[in-house]
Amino acid sequence: MSSNIEIERICQHCNKDFIAKTTVTRYCSDDCAKRAYKARKRAEKIGVSVAEIQQIRQKPIEDLKAREFLTVMQVSKLIGCSKQNVYKLINTGKLKATNILIKKTIVKRSEIDKLFESKEKVKPTQFKPLEIAECYTISEVQEKFKVSQSAFQNIMKRNNIQKMQKGKFVYVPKVIINDIFK
Predict the structure, then answer these.
(1) What's the domain range around 165?
(2) InterPro entries annotated for this entry (predicted)?
């Protein structure tokens, strides 16, 4: 049974206008239908491959989550930081670890969970604006207290001293400097 209707359609593969004889025709030619089929199959294969890759990447992390005891390298992978950061956490006492062998540091999984459950909130340091009359310049501090520039920079870093720059001068609070040097 043939139909005598002619419907103007747009090919779903090449986006060209064509005259279709049925209402369900999607492609302008057999070539476009074959190309669309190949593109669809290619996309399915790529989708399966991407899903496999994601599964392979997630597997080591899932294995780490299931383990009771972890090495420093495994802890760094689990929380997404460097080994040095994990060692800093251990040395500061925020993360408890055991050194079983000379070169083998082991961390219990529950200790990592406790690290993130801590109620300690980080408060950003807020400095109040300084008055120039209540401040020394850096050169004044060096002359008055007979200290070198590098030594004073180290003292400022160590004590987290607020500094303010106005023009070409850098100012530091007199009260804090007097407390440190006396």
Answers:
(1) 132-181
(2) HTH_17
pTM: 0.41
The amino acid present at 21, given as its one-letter code, is K
Give dist(CA 115, CA 131) in Å, integer: 41
Please report whether residue 103 resides in a domain.
yes
Residues 138 and 171 in one domain: yes
With beta carbons less than 8 A apart as the criterion, state whether 151 and 117 touch: no
The tens-digit pLDDT sequence of the chain (182 residues) is 567 889 999 999 999 999 999 989 999 999 999 999 999 999 999 999 999 999 888 887 777 777 889 999 999 988 889 999 999 999 988 889 988 877 888 999 888 888 888 666 666 666 677 788 889 999 999 999 999 999 999 999 898 888 888 889 999 999 999 998 88
Question: What gap in Å lies between CA 44 and CA 39, rounded to an integer?
Answer: 9
- Domain containing residue 153: CATH number: 3.90.105
User: What is the β-pairing status of strands 17-20 and 164-166?
Assistant: unpaired
**Domain count of the fold of the chain:** 2
- What lies within 8 Å, CB to CB, of 86 at 6+ separation is 72, 75, 76, 79, 95, 107
